[in-house]
Amino acid sequence: MNKRIAPHKLNFDTGWAYSPAPESIDHVHIKDQYKLFIGGKFVAPKAGKYFNTINPANEKVLARVAQAGATDVDRAVNAARGAYDNIWSKMKPAERGKYIYRIARIIQERAREFAVIESVDGGKPIREARDVDIPLAAAHFFYYAGWADKLNYAFPCRTPQSLGVAGQIIPWNFPLLMAAWKIAPALACGNTVVLKPAETTPLTALKLAEVIEAADLPPGVVNILTGDGSTGAAIVNHDDVNKIAFTGSTNVGRIIQHALAGTDKKYTLELGGKAANIIFADAAIDQAVEGVVNAIFFNQGHVCCAGSRLLVQESVADEVVFKLKERMQTLIVGDPLDKNTDIGAINSAAQLERINAYLDLGQEEGAEMFQCGGKNPDKGYWCQPTLFTNVAQSHRVVREEIFGPVLAIQTFRTLDEAVAKANNTQYGLSGGIWTDKGAKIFNVGAKIRAGVIWANTFNKFDPTSPFGGYKESGVGREGGMHGLSAYLDLH
Ligand code: ADP
Questions:
Q1: Interval between CA 273 and ligand 1 midpoint (Å)
Q2: Which ligand 1 atom is the nearest neighbour of the CA of 199?
Q3: Residue 405's closest CA among 330, 331, 313?
Q4: Kind of pairing, strands 50-55 and 60-66?
Q5: Which one of 34, 73, 166, 365 is most buried, by most CB atoms within 10 A?
Q6: Tens of pLDDT along 114-135?
Q7: Does residue 361 surpass a pLDDT of 50?
Q8: Using one digit for the tens of pLDDT, what is the confidence trace for 455-464?
Q9: Distance (Å, rounded) from C-alpha 391 to C-alpha 369?
Q10: Residue of the nearest CA to atom 26 in ligand 1?
Q11: Domain regions of the chain by residue span
Q12: pLDDT single digits (tens) 203-238
């Protein structure tokens, strides 16, 4: 028991609040209705169906977007095939690179507009959309543009060949960034693309279609289809698609893996996670606490690599929990467009329902739940940051991906126990280690079965760095040079 701080003395009611600092939206243009982007043009869906995309912070309709059916998928794949056979695969790689650079530059020029749209369509705080999502998306296009004419250097003594048409299906947590992760390496390697954004966050992908138009890409090189899971399934099952890249839930990943079994389609899957963030007693505790907040509360915990399990060495557990609770009192939950906001809106009513079901379940399982009791806005979907203590390894809130701002805290005594607990999961996407001993970082890092391990930081991304999972967290790697090989046949 740590005697330095008495956990019962929590009193953080400072009685003051920040003045609102809303991001300006004058420069943002969202159309009332969006069609499908096929063969370089916006075209109506064959069946004439549209659905609403809403702002999860106020439940207002932002726009109507097209629901692509199987015929539209067929049209898009044909357009991508034509562009691949006749133009893109024959183009000099350096020329392909110029187009990709152009996309990167236009995203940078329109970064503020992209950031606002990402925030209103998905619910994420503008600070994060502005500082993370959009700059990183542009950085991915810049990075892969540079590789377009250097593939032979990336894979010496091999003959890198493009695959053909890539079908790409992305989730709602980082809409533009996920589109960039998928489109940029595919194009750099000489493939053409049919991309489907998630149904709740289609707007930045449609804006990206406008960028692709403005960048004068040959028609059909990138096609963007909005729609639901049935659209995704039609892309996966289309005979003329050569590669599937999917990011989303482990359940849908399994369905896709079944569908692709026995075909010659290449695939990469980036699925769920339940990352352990491990704090050793020798860590810089204040920094570690801030890292934990960043790992699970920012972006509403809508991050597949979120540090949703915290493992704390027993001797500092009280101090960490106390400081975490103290920090949680200062987190601002509310209007995503306010630059002071730390935690925005939950992406959809369905996701909020799912998170709330886990909050009930955790308590039924006997865990102790802590929330700060802040007031949620009247409209929209909100979840206050939540801690579960007194949890066991068998509890579902410890084992299952919640995808919300919900942290389960466990303690450990020895390094081996920390490693065993961290690895006791069906997932293996990411992990974090907090210690002031470099040797411990290497020792523990090598023992944790996860694709990315952060040391004394968390959720840091860079286009040069590969990302992907072990076990049920997925197959293959995206990002860096590894991300190139996912879009190439390497003889
Ligand atoms: P989440 O649970 O995070 O919403 P999903 O895995 O359901 O994640 O969705 C991720 C993406 O996969 C979305 O674009 C969604 O429309 C798409 N999708 C859903 N079901 C299928 C399916 N059976 N086949 C292909 N794509 C699908």
A1: 16
A2: 16
A3: 331
A4: antiparallel
A5: 166
A6: 999 999 999 999 999 999 999 9
A7: yes
A8: 999 999 999 9
A9: 10
A10: 232
A11: 33-271+473-490, 273-455
A12: 999 999 999 999 999 999 999 999 999 999 999 999
Q: Confirm if 354 and 41 have CB atoms less than 8 A apart.
A: no
Which residue's alpha carbon is nearest to atom 2 within ligand 1?
249
CATH superfamily of 273-455: Aldehyde Dehydrogenase; Chain A, domain 2 (3.40.309.10)
Using CB atoms within 10 Å of the CB of residue 108, give its burial: 0 to 12 exposed, 13 to 18 middle, 19+ buried.
middle
Question: For ligand 1, which residues put their CB under 6 angstroms from it?
Answer: 169-171, 196, 198-199, 228-229, 232-233, 236, 248-249, 252, 255-256
Q: Provide the pLDDT for residue 491.
A: 78
Cβ atoms of residues 176 and 118 within 8 Å: yes
Residue nearest atom 21 in ligand 1 by C-alpha distance? 229
- pLDDT for position 440: 98
Mean pLDDT, all residues of the chain: 95
Residue type, 398: V
CATH homologous superfamily of 33-271+473-490: Aldehyde Dehydrogenase; Chain A, domain 1 (3.40.605.10)
What distance in angstroms lies between residue 49's CA and the mean position of ligand 1's atoms? 19
pLDDT band (50, 70, 90) for residue 14: low
Task: Quote the ligand 1 centre to 227 CA distance (angstroms).
Answer: 10
For ligand 1, the distance from its centroid to the CA atom of residue 68, given in whole angstroms, is 14
Atom of ligand 1 nearest to the CA of 235: 25
Residues forming the active site: 270, 304
Give the pLDDT confidence of 150-167 residue by residue, as tens digits.
999 999 999 999 999 999
What pLDDT does 11 receive? 46
* 196 Cα nearest atom in ligand 1: 14
End-to-end CA gap in the chain: 60
